[in-house]
Amino acid sequence: MKDGKSNIAIFDTFKTRRNKFTGEAKRQRGIIAHLATEQSPELRTRTSIAHAIAEQHGILWQNIYSGIFRDLDEVLIPAGVVKEGGRLPLRRGPKALQLEGVPFYELTDTGLLVASSIEELGDKRMGLLKSYVSSLPANDSQCKAMKDGLLLLIDRAPSFVTKVINEYIYAYSTGLISSIAPLETKKLRSVIAKEIAVEKELVEAFVAFSGDQKDLARNFFKVMT
Asked: How far apart are CA 180 and CA 167, in angstroms?
């Protein structure tokens, strides 16, 4: 179990409005999405992140800066989602700050996985996930089956993969598992085995169907969807 203080809040919703993210969830999702797409270090400082998120929501960046600061320093960095990528020199301000520089941030491997569960990234989500999965080693037959299967399903059944990854990240965000990276067969199975039981039953049944039965199943889904 993780320390509750560093649990990320990207799935947190209001108790009375389950379909509405909390302010903290929106900020953290915004930070992760911004770092997943922005390449320039100058645009990955706390101030730049605050400006970008404020512009998206039509608010003053000063109103959310303290929240951004807190989300980074007290949640996302301790949770291993974000890390300091380096420091940029300051040309103005106190001498000590000029020497120390301003930190900019980047996603860790864990952060890249978390980013793949954020709808705000649109089609880029699957690209991030595919890049991450492609980099995984295939040290044994189970690892290879997981890696090759995910890469196939990312292309052919992205909605299903989204469900799998969301369940995995949700388990991490609520402290049910202590880490998500590297992505490992045993850890992923411990989270999603029950969640994909219906899909497993359907696939196993379809594989065993005769040709006519497969046509019946296809027609059923065509009519129902």
From this structure: 11
Q: Which residue has the tokens 């090759």?
A: 148
Quick count: other Cβ atoms within 10 Å of Cβ 34?
A: 23
Task: Extract the runs of DSSP E, i.e. beta strands, from 66-118.
Answer: 82-88, 102-107
Count of domains observed in the chain:
1
CA–CA dist 212, 222 (Å, integer): 15
User: Can the peptide bond before residue 182 be classed as cis, meaning omega within 30 degrees of 0?
Assistant: yes
In a domain, 5, yes or no: yes
**pTM (predicted TM-score):** 0.88
Rounded CA separation 224/216 (Å): 12
What is the pLDDT at residue 177?
Answer: 92
221 in a structural domain = no
pLDDT for 5 equals 43
- Position 201, amino acid: E
3-state secondary structure of 86: strand
Q: How far apart are the first and last CA of the chain?
A: 40
% of the chain exceeding 70 in pLDDT: 95
**Is 137 a member of any domain?**
no
DSSP assignment, residue 18?
E
Tell me the pLDDT tens digit for each residue of 115-156: 999 999 998 999 999 999 999 999 999 999 999 999 999 999
User: CA-CA distance, 105 to 85, in Å (whole number)?
Assistant: 5
Amino acid at 17: R
Q: What is the largest CA-CA distance in the chain?
A: 78
